[in-house]
Write the structure tokens for this entry.
Amino acid sequence: MTPELKARFDNDIRNHKVVLFMKGNALFPQCGFSARALQILQQHGEVHTVDVLADPEVRQGIKEYSNWPTIPQVFINGKFVGGSDILMELEERGELADLIAGKTPV
Amino acid sequence: MLDPNAIHQRILGALPGSEVEVRDTTGTGDHFEARVVSPSFAGKSMVEQHQMVYAPLQDWLKTGELHALALKTYSPEQWKKLGSR
């Protein structure tokens, strides 16, 4: 991963409370897991999305950045939270709202 | 083809004192689900908890022998609160 790309991820994640790296965009998700993750997050407010399909460098780079092998990936309040399974589980446990509100540490 | 018991043993070896339950979801020995309740999870995020379970299974995951593992992880405190859901 180039330093430029790392800086770009750092910025995205610093400047937005909730960031979703997904396949497709908010209007046209290109994968069921990405669509589901987006849907869950949108119930809690604004979501900044990054389409990994638009740039192969981003698609590969984000996996190295978070040390996580799959997409979608969710970052909340500057920290990596996980993929769609973890997101669904957090929502089921009722912990996601608090996490976004910053009431529980990520 | 993996045996749920082999997965169980590795998780338990890496996280002593845990309560581990592993199930073969498809009967084909490569898709599993596991529930792990471990004192080592206290204060850790869910991603960190999952990574602690994946760590001892890394070689099986890399070779694809273990294709998928659906995980539910809890600290004992979380399990007390959420286990009866």
Observations:
- The mean pLDDT of chain B is 94.
- DSSP finds four helices and three strands in chain B.
